[in-house]
Design goal:
Helices cover 32% and strands 31% of the residues. The protein has five helices and seven strands; from the N terminus they run βαααβββαβαββ. A hairpin with a 7-residue loop joins strand 2 and strand 3. Helix 1 packs across helix 3. The N terminus is likely disordered.
Length: 183
Amino acid sequence: MTNIPSATFTMPYLRHATESDATLIASFSEMVFNTSFPGLLDMGVSLEILRRFYNAQAISDGIKGEEVFLLLFNDLSEKELTGYVSVEPVNDGLWVLHKLYVSPAHHRRHIGSRLMDDALDYISRHIHNTVCVQLNLNRHNTPALRLYQTKGFHIVREENGMLGEHPKTDFVMATVCEPHEKQ
């Protein structure tokens, strides 16, 4: 009889973030920005985004408000955060996807797709009628653009502006707004 080495199998673990996760989310976001976005975003834009939106206080304030963060860990031990997504209701029919980040060590493993599905599932369970999800995306982030398009998002418009002193070039994307019957 041949001995077959046993593989260690871990089951990804998804949970809602609490205010006590704000520092973890902020440091994870900084790590992702520093390793995934050089060359994609102007360094000034990256630093400004981190300073304004990804500091622990801003994240904690979002969690205290209506922004929902779903954290995906490698397993129940919660030792390794593999990615997260955040969404927020704007009104009864419109939600905004603010953030979707995956650890570079877990790129190309369908983690982003899984998080997107989890976010859309969460939204579908918390709406009352029509649902439309909107997001902003840097125009040069081709992998994310492809992911969002496979999930039913389409480009609504291009948005040029300034983030502090730095130019920002985004696509505004949205799902097709559809009537939804709450399950």
